[in-house]
Amino acid sequence: MAGVQNYPNLDFATGAGGLVSLDALLPPTSQPAPSASVPDGSYLAGIEVLAPNLKTPYTQAWNVGIQRDLGNGMTLEVNYVGSGTHRLLRSVDGNPPLPGLVAEAQANGTLPTNVSGGALRIAPLLGLPQVTGNQAFEEPIVIKSIGNGTYNGLQSVFHKRFGHGVQFQAAYTWSHAIDDAADPLVAPGGNRNIARNSFNLHEERGSSDYDLRHRLITNYVFELPFGTGHARFNHGAAARAFGGWQLSGLSAFQSGHPFDLYSARDSEYTGLSNRPDLVGDPTIPAGAPRNETGPPISAFALQPFGRPGNLGRNTFTGPRYFNTDLNLLKNTRITERVNLQFRAEAYNVFNRVQFDIVGTAGDTLASPGTFGQSLSTLTQPDGTTSARQIQLALKLMF
Predict the structure, then answer these.
(1) How many angstroms separate the Cα of 53 from the Cα of each of 46, 95, 145?
(2) Could you tell me whether strands 277-278 and 300-301 are parallel, antiparallel, or unpaired per DSSP bridges?
(3) Tell me: the pLDDT tens digits for 178-188?
(4) How far is the CA of 146 from the CAs of 165, 179, 379, in angstroms?
């Protein structure tokens, strides 16, 4: 693909000459068509292609539930929700080292057993035998519809309708999402989108990147029982001062998102590093830095060549998320048609540090200084800091 630009001046380089009118603008010169083939030995990188037989993903869902009226405006609902998804899009290596060629070269002594990773892709450039399918591409990414996933969840909702100045709702979900296909373009949480071993996708089966085992959301409204229409402070200056106050809020409590851990060794000779061996206690030690939200590096060891590490995909979860936003407002009736409203809003009212998931710089054994540490904090939906924020507003409505 070639880019073409037309400049509005007759002599753009010097800025001289008058502007070219649209009707006098010359069409771009014809560009030669790119070659339909890539010569062997090009080692072309950064290529992503769609598989020719790409199919549309589909989901089969099922659920069963009960709902109970508890009286006094209260209801309870409990549901089991399940689904199975197939033909998920997932990225694989389009030109990986071929196990047969690697084994043959190692057996005849032309390929040392400690040569792995990216070196296998460009082996001929290093004076070693070719062990990939071709030398035209270095690491092409092929997106195929070969992934599968399941979801099973217990979803419950308790709701109290507004009455006597109180409204409350709580929704709790206990669930588990499993798949073998990370996002084919950008995997969340610093995870990798391409399979560690494109010949064995079973190694990629584990908790989904978006899996949340526990999640509780509550929202509530509490109207203070003062002012006109209530038993206390219902007339005069007291009604104006104490009446019209309302407190509402939203609280979220959830377990952490899963994240993956990698070593710096390509022990399976797939051209990509894979997961290490879990050999010790992964519990965060006492006295660890506050931002150490993942297991210590001492719990892992470099896996030997010839097999994958014993650690599965997304075995560990990141920091939990607890957050409460509150809104306090007061309505003051000035006249029959004019109302003054005061609002005080607080986000993350308890100022809890919301650590992000373990960062990409800290999730490999090659980064011992930051391994298992969260290197950033979450932000509010508008991109601002997750630290406590308070804002005040005064609104005149008529």
Answers:
(1) 22, 18, 8
(2) antiparallel
(3) 999 888 777 77
(4) 53, 11, 34
Question: The whole model's pTM is what?
Answer: 0.81
User: Nearest to residue 305, comparing CAs of 273, 262, 261, 260?
Assistant: 273
Identify any residues that bridge with 373 across adjacent strands, giving them in sequence order: 292
DSSP-derived secondary structure for 166-181: EEEEEEEEEEEEEES-
Beta bridge partners of 346: 326, 390
Domain ranges for the chain, please list them.
55-96+132-397
pLDDT tens string 75-91: 999 999 999 999 999 99
Cβ within 8 Å of residue 308, ≥6 positions away? 196, 197, 203, 267, 268, 274, 275
Torsion sign over Cα 128, 130, 134, 138: negative
CB atoms within 10 A of CB 276: 24
Strands of the chain (E only): list them.
Answer: 9-11, 16-19, 48-50, 58-71, 74-93, 141-163, 166-179, 206-207, 214-223, 245-254, 258-259, 277-278, 300-301, 316-317, 321-333, 339-347, 389-397
Largest CA distance in the chain: 99
Q: Are 131 and 125 in contact (CB under 8 A)?
A: no
Whole-number Å distance between alpha carbons of 116 and 97: 9
For 202, other C-beta atoms within 10 Å of its C-beta total 7
Residues 6+ apart with CB under 8 A from 269: 97, 99, 102, 116, 120, 131, 305
